[in-house]
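Hi P.,

Sorry for the delay on this. The queue was packed all week, but I finally got your sequence through. Input first:
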Amino acid sequence: MKIFPRQTLRESVTLEGPGLHSGEPVSVTIHPARDGIYFRQGSERIEAHVRNVTDTSRCTMLGSISTVEHVLSALAGLAITDAEIEVSGGELPAVDGCSQPYVEAFESVGYESCGTLEIEGPFARVYAVEGQAKVAVAAGEGWWRAEFELEDCFIGRQEVEMSWTPTRYAADVAPARTVVLEWEMEMVKKYGLGKGLDESSCLGIGREKYMNPARFPDEPVRHKLLDLIGDLSLAGVPVEALDVVGERCGHAVNILAAQRLAERVTIRRVD
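Then the structure:
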């Protein structure tokens, strides 16, 4: 059994803006809490757990609340284990297409201890495969690796790895934005997606170059790691307790891995 500290925010923080996909005005307020991580919208209150995932087609959706992965990634990346996430508008705001605005908001109010987590398992490596996408998870010390590949494109193959600390997450992962492929833009528009994104809140990938300035030469794979951290957090296991490798991963395979991980761990919350 391993024991990890739990922490929450000292004060509530609010972020507003267009929904990442809907483009409609939405807001989110993250409150201090002591009973885990929950999303709340009107009378709906839903635990941030993989069993409550309802869609993974272009984002991760919990109940009727969509695009939850960036705020979850920020919480997990900063080792915040307890929060009440109040949403209006059915979707989380785009807020720069990454998790950095959440990180900055959380760091501005600080944290306080709220108990411990006792975790047993996983006792064997957990695998998830969806076509060419793969995720492997094992008990570890917070070593995470992601690989991203695009054929017939200047991207080729990108790889990034991180020995997790909150500082490393905030500097090297949180600023990496959602990517949009030039050849998929018409399809994205056709299905009414990505309306809350603009040149500052996403990175466009063309066949021969980025379509706007990149924050990192390998920004796409860093965003894949950002999403992977957020999605796997739905198993309830801290980033620092795992070693993870994701290849060509997306929300569907991430959530499958989270489901299998959740089945293989026992988690107790102690005040």
